[in-house]
Write a structure and sequence with these properties.
By secondary structure, this protein is an alpha/beta fold. The protein is about 35% helix and about 30% strand. It has a 4-stranded mixed β-sheet. Helix 3 packs parallel to helix 5. The protein starts with 6 loop residues before the first strand and ends with a helix.
Length: about 160
């Protein structure tokens, strides 16, 4: 039975490939049912993969092969809280190294255009520090980074 609320992500024919990549990359992720179109539709033919049910870190998603009309934008992203530099590096490198691209402040895009924020927990703690000067130092350090450098954030946070 499908979840009551599911995130639907629009793809241009690569929903199954993306779902399998996410399932192999992120913990608590899996690919479920793959539904093939029972008839022709605007961006595909009968028998093509129409939808793919999957989870990303426990979040239910549906990949819809809807065609090129609606590309992904930064208006939607997954924010992944990482525990250390090794986990940050592993996830960042998996996304960017698989045809994705780097952006700023811990953001990157996968090869299907979906945005990801790979955010070490220490960064969140640092920019929420009640000591606003310490928070600003960490924030300013983050603003100069692409992939987040945990040691750099910790150093800036400490002053």
């Amino acid at each position: 039975m499908p979840a009551k609320n599911t995130i639907c992500l629009w793809f241009n024919g690569a929903a199954e490939e993306a779902a399998r990549f996410y399932a192999a990359t992120f913990p608590d992720s899996a690919v479920g049912a793959v539904m093939r179109a029972p008839g022709d539709y605007p961006s595909g033919q009968q028998g093509d993969v129409l939808t793919v049910e999957f989870t990303v870190m426990g979040i239910p998603c549906l990949g819809l092969n809807g065609g090129p009309a609606f590309p992904q934008t930064e208006a939607f992203s997954f924010q992944v809280a990482t525990d250390d530099q090794a986990e940050t590096d592993r996830l960042w490198n998996a996304i960017v190294g698989n045809g994705g691209q780097e952006s700023a402040c811990g953001w990157c895009k996968d090869k299907w255009g979906l945005s990801w924020q790979i955010t070490p927990r220490v960064l969140t703690a640092a920019i929420n520090d009640p000591d606003r000067a310490a928070a600003k130092r960490a924030f300013d350090a983050m603003m100069g980074m692409r992939k987040i450098d945990v040691a750099g954030i910790e150093k800036a946070w400490r002053g």
